[in-house]
Every structure is written in structure tokens, then in C-alpha cells.
Amino acid sequence: MSETPVSETPASAGSETPACAALTARARALDAADVLAGRRKEFVLDDTVYLDGNSLGALPAAVPGRLDDVVRREWGELRIRSWDESGWWTAPERTGDLIAPLVGAAAGQIVVGDSTSVNIFKALVGAVRLAGEGRDEILVDASTFPTDGYIAGSAARLTGRTLRPVEPADVPAALSDRTAAVLLNQVDYRTGRLHDLPSLTAAVRAAGAVSVWDLCHSAGALPVGLDAHGVDLAVGCTYKYLNGGPGSPAYLYVRHGLQDRFDSPLPGWNSHAEPFGMRPAYEPAAGALRGRVGTPDILSMLALEAALGVWEGVTVDAVRAKSLALTDFFLECVGAYVPAGRVDVLTPLAHAERGSQVALRCADAGEVMRRLIARGVVGDFRRPDVLRFGFTPLYVGFGDVERAAAVLGKVLGEASE
Amino acid sequence: MSETPVSETPASAGSETPACAALTARARALDAADVLAGRRKEFVLDDTVYLDGNSLGALPAAVPGRLDDVVRREWGELRIRSWDESGWWTAPERTGDLIAPLVGAAAGQIVVGDSTSVNIFKALVGAVRLAGEGRDEILVDASTFPTDGYIAGSAARLTGRTLRPVEPADVPAALSDRTAAVLLNQVDYRTGRLHDLPSLTAAVRAAGAVSVWDLCHSAGALPVGLDAHGVDLAVGCTYKYLNGGPGSPAYLYVRHGLQDRFDSPLPGWNSHAEPFGMRPAYEPAAGALRGRVGTPDILSMLALEAALGVWEGVTVDAVRAKSLALTDFFLECVGAYVPAGRVDVLTPLAHAERGSQVALRCADAGEVMRRLIARGVVGDFRRPDVLRFGFTPLYVGFGDVERAAAVLGKVLGEASE
């Protein structure tokens, strides 16, 4: 893993040097010019600098009222009638179609429901079946968020394939006519590294294998382009940049061209062609519905649907532009405020390789993060030594970024005294 | 399937005959003596006779306020801190321990999360693995709710076993040293027939196979006795008699003695021995936690936790006694109010074979149910010709029962004119 030492510029953390004053002024100017600044008011926020939206997105202001209506009126008054009258039954595909434009998908290819882990299982077993009998190997991102690897191991075991972990950059060399499926993360959860989805997807396709992308750390933060790049299957969570709430349901994308052959290992009654026919023989529904399993979790699903309203009128390109500006500015401020040599930047500096977070390697990172949080700057700690800061362009501003770096500088300055 | 014609007693539906007046008086007396009558105020109800709690339980009055606090304070204000500070992380096992006494399980054997279908998959693949290599057959209830059969088919396919549907009564004869696992419903979703869990479980065990019980239509309505009867694995939903809300998460029971060997086909990061170690190799957690998969759905989970508060101080024996009294009284009232020959009772008359619902076969059942609902009596229709009425002892009274039968009598009386 490449590591980039931060700027060697010495800085008196938090002191009122001309350099710091200049950064404060820059932050103000950047905030004033921010075309997404108005979106912040659509979230419930306080004076905390919340840089953990890549773990749990902030609460959209529309959610509490909507959920109260779902509970009190739709469940409490209409009860069972709401499955039809309140549109509960069709929420998985309706909510999927709200996510679709954020990941570059035409309608009718995404259903929402179940956890990311469960969707990875559906996608990977489905991918192996799509690839056919002759291919006996599943490749998985060696630096993946662990659940992907665990579930891939189970999918391999149950389908009689071999699981082979490889670094994403080494995937093209590892592909062969033995490769059935390849599971990759678009953005690495720890370092924030952005992998090259277009070229990797093309390589997987050229090898005759099936691509499965995990979008947990990219959807809602940068362009994905599922349709444009010919991705076969994709999964993602909705509680990070999509702000769906704690443990909100994940989603599964199956591209149109594969839907008729998609053969789910979890053929629950919700994916039946005629679910209320209560027929003993399974017959899969047409389209993306085939990715449904059991009764959808309505409270969380409708909270997510309401949360997705904040994207109305927002382009992912605008989000990406601000995201890069935020992470650039954070790196610059860290260079200015943090004592030299105290952190190494794990996140790539090249825009083409950067997601929407910055990961800093730092001695005693757990304690450092505790102190940051105590001072109102919330990021998170990933073992053994990583400080992780996520930048959610819909509600994080440049002033937040400068303050976070300044507080980090102070905390590390104190620790070194 | 046995069918019992209802009483031939002619009745002028809804007319003020002495027989009807006597039933009205009986209903009043039964309600006055009902030790569970006080529980009704813990639910949000109106003057509808709600006999569909076996599909979606009514809203417990404590839920809206609790969920509002979860959303506005725990998510909105504490955000990521709530995973620790608000106890989100441990909610699956904590909520499981609230369900445990309702199904006769000691603590530490149930985790809540995922849908019923997904839990059936975990349980059945886990059961096949527990049974060992030599056993190549899975038995499944031939009249099961369809999803159980569909998922069992997938589990059989992925583990290389053969799926064999059998009627529950025929299970003892079908068991052999080839049997790996047996998936049964304690109560049939359509007819309301209660199967003999103790003797069937003992037969499965005697054959050296692993038992898996689906408790969707029994938990919260009658004693289950998982521990007492030596059940191996069980699953159930929480939105029927447990009133968790639409699509609230299901649960998985793995008895203590099997937990160390339970080998889940969905080994997500939440079931890892050290989930935040983010280690590439999977190592399962000890205990029931091994049944967890991905990030739990917190909004629905905590709504369920609040909903389970209505059980405080309630014994399942009291619920069962009232349930039988309600279904007995309903059958008596149907006999009195419904024109002779218009319905056949599909639900067994013997208490030992009856769950907490009454299923009536009836010509034009779909239209009949629409008319019942229009007059404030809510049950449901199951194709092709079944009227289904569920009796939830915590909030249905004997007056409701009499009114439902009287309205049914009127609707059927009109239809026959």
C-alpha cells in the first residue's frame, strides 16, 4: 500500500499564523461559491464537524415526519391495507429506481432489501451460475471490507469454486478462462482508494467472467456509471452517502441483459412471478424483482425512500467536484496544521484514485480519534492505526474541513508535548 | 385436508333472535372475565374488528414515541456514537432474549435480523451441515407457506441434497438414515392446523436428523417449548403475533448444544468473533451471535424491541387459553349467524390441532372478504377460496368475535338472496 508523507511545512497547530488566516479565508470563499451549500439545510446537523458520513450518514430533515406518518397512519390506522394502499409492496423496486440515477443505471435494474452481505451472496452465487460450469475460480479484492471476503468464501464453498484473493490492480493478470466471477470494491473502505471500475469491468468481461461491484463507499459520492461501463452485478449499502439510517436496507443491481438468466440462491416468495398465488413450485419473476427475497423491511425502507429526496436536482458530477475539492482542501489544511511527521496519508493524491474520504496513518490513532470526537470533530478509527475522515458533499462545508484539520493539529500538537 | 361443515342450525343472520341475544350476552360476560382484556389499551386500535393480526399485528402504543426518539436523538443527534452509546450493536441478541421466553427458550439462543426466508436458508444449510455427510435428503412440509419450500429447494441444490415434500403427519414414516434435516411449520398458514411439535421433534431426533421449525404462525399465540422439546433450530417472523411492524426482522434460534458446530452459509462480518478486527480470515463468534450476518436494520429492530414490551407480565399459557376461547366462540357464533351450508371450517376442531386462526372455505371468498372489510371486519383471503381470521389474544375481545360472525352472516345472507 502506498503511503504519502504529508507536507513537511512546519505549522504551529491552531496558532494565528498568516498561513492559517489564509486558509480560513479560503474556506469562507469556497463555502460562498459552493453550489451544493444549500443542501445542508435538508439535514439535521449541529455544530459538530461530522466526517463520518461514510459510516453513517446524517439524518435528512424529511425523515422523522415521514416515518411518523408511516408508523401512526399507514401501520397504526390502515394496518394490513397499507401493503396495497400505501404502496408498501412495491417499495423495493420503487426505492431502487430512486437509487438508479445515482449509480448510472436506467430504471428497472435495482431492488432494495436485505443487508449488503446478503446481497453479495445473491450476486456472487448468481454470478457463478451465469458464468457457467466450466469456470471454477472466484476472484475477490484482497484488501476488501471483510464481509465481502467472508461471504465470497461461503459462495465459493457452496458452488464448489475456489476463492482467490487478489489486489484489484492485479486482477487483469489473474483473469483466465477459469475465472467465473470477480468481486471488487469501487472504493477501498480503509484507504479511500478509488479503483478503476471501467477498465477492470472491461477486463473481466473480456475474460468471459462476470463482474460484481461493491459500491458501499462510492454510491452517492462519485459517478459509478453501471450501465455505461457494462457492469454485470452490483451491490451497495444505503446508510453511508445515501443517508438511509442505521442498517437501512442494501440494494442489488442486475443489468437488464442478465435478468432473465439471473438465478438467485435466495428465491424467497417475494421474487416469485405470482407471489400471492402461493404455489408450491418456484417460478422467478421477470426483471430486477428476481433479486427480492422475503417480506421487505418497510419502516427502514420508507425512511430510506424519504432520505433519497435530498438528491432531487443534485447531479453526481457536482457532488464529485465538491468531494474532490473537500478532500484536496483537507489535505492542504492537514499539511498546514499538523506537526510534520505525525501522520502519513494513505489515500491516493491523484484524483482518479481517490474516493470521498481521507485516511491518515497515525501513532495512537484510537486515542487521537477519541480526543477529536471530544472536541466536536467526528471521524472514525480503523485498526490498527488509521484515522478515517469521510466527506459528504451534501452537508460538509469547507469551513468544517479547515476546523477539522486545525483540531487535529492541536490534538497532535498536545500529544507531542 | 379435513373439512368440517359448520353447525346446521339455521339462523337469520343479524336478526334479534333469542339465540343471538344470548351470544351477545355471552360475549359481554366473556369480555368481563378476560384476564388479558387490559392489554388492549397498549395498542392503537379503532372500532374495526381486526382479525388479521396473524398477517400484520396492530401497532403497540409504545412504538411511535420510541421510534421518534431513535430517529431524532439516537440517529439525528448522536449519529455514529449510537452504535455503542445507544446499544444498537447488541440489539439483535438483546431483542432475541426478549422473544426467548415467548417460545420457551433460555437466553442466549436467539438473534434477530434478516427476513424469515433468509433465516430459513441459514437454518437449513446449517442443519444439513450438522447432520453430516452421509445424509442426503431434506424433508419439507408439503403444505408449507411457499417461501419455506422455495428456500429449502435452494438449500438442497446448494448442498447437493434431495428435497422431499411430505405432509407433517407423514414425517415419522418418511424419516430414515438418509434424512439430514426436516423443516416444518408449527401452525399451517392457511388452515390454522397446529402440528405436534413435541412428537415430531422427537421422531426427527430419533432418526438422527436435525429439526428446523418455522414458528411464524405460532410464536406469540401458543406455547412452543423449544428448549423443553429439544428443537434443534427454529425461525420465525415478528410482525404477526409479536406486533413488530411491517417487515420487522425475523429471528433464528440455535439451541445451546449445537451452537459450537453451527456453520452458517451467510458468515457476514457481524457474526465474526472480532467484528471490528477487520481480519481477512473468518472466525465465527461463540453462541447465538453466529447467526448474525450484516449490519442490523436498527429502525425496525428497535421498533420491534419496543413492541415486545406489551408482553411484560403476560404468560403464554394465558394467551393460549384465551386464543382457544376466542376461536371456540367464533366457531359457535359462525354456526349461529351464518346461513347453513355457506362455509366449511378448514381449521381442526380439536384444541390440540388448532392454532390461533380460523379458516373458512367459502364460495366467492375474495368478494366476501372485500365486503367484510368494507363493514369493518378485517380478515384476509387466501386463494382460491379461503377466508382467514386471526385471533390475537392481546387485543381481540369476545365482542369483536361475535360482531365478526354476525357481519359474516349478514354478508353471506345478502349474497344468497
Chain-wise SSE layout:
The structure is a homodimer of 417-residue chains.
Chain A: E1 4-5, H1 18-33, E2 49-50, H2 63-75, H3 82-85, H4 91-99, E3 110-112, H5 116-131, E4 137-141, H6 146-159, E5 162-166, H7 171-174, E6 179-185, H8 197-206, E7 210-214, E8 233-236, E9 251-254, H9 256-259, H10 298-307, H11 316-337, E10 343-345, E11 357-362, H12 365-374, E12 377-378, E13 380-382, E14 386-390, H13 398-415
Parallel strand pairs in A: 2-12, 4-5, 4-6, 6-7, 7-8
Antiparallel strand pairs in A: 1-10, 3-9, 8-9, 10-11, 11-14, 13-14
Structure described in brief:
2 copies of one chain form a homodimer. Chain A is an alpha/beta fold and 417 residues long.
Structural class of chain A: alpha/beta
- Into which percentage range does the β-strand content of chain A fall? 5-15%
Mean pLDDT of chain A: 94
**How would you sum up the major sheet of chain A?**
7 strands, mixed
One letter per element, helices H and strands E, the order of chain A comes to EHEHHHEHEHEHEHEEEHHHEEHEEEH
Shape of chain A: globular
Tell me the CATH topology of the largest domain in chain A: Aspartate Aminotransferase, domain 2
CATH class of the largest domain in chain A: Alpha Beta
Tell me the number of structural domains of chain A: 2
Uncertain runs of chain A: 1-14
Number of strands of chain A: 14
Q: Report the CATH architecture of the largest domain in chain A.
A: 3-Layer(aba) Sandwich
CATH superfamily of the largest domain in chain A: Type I PLP-dependent aspartate aminotransferase-like (Major domain)
Oligomer: homodimer
**Biggest interface and residues each:** A-B, 82 and 82 residues
The strand order across the widest sheet of chain A is 3-9-8-7-6-4-5
Total of DSSP H or I helical runs spanning 4+ residues of chain A: 13
Q: What percent of the residues of chain A sit in helical stretches (DSSP H or I)?
A: 25-40%
- Give the CA-CA distance, first to last residue of chain A: 30 Å
Computed Rg of chain A: 22 Å
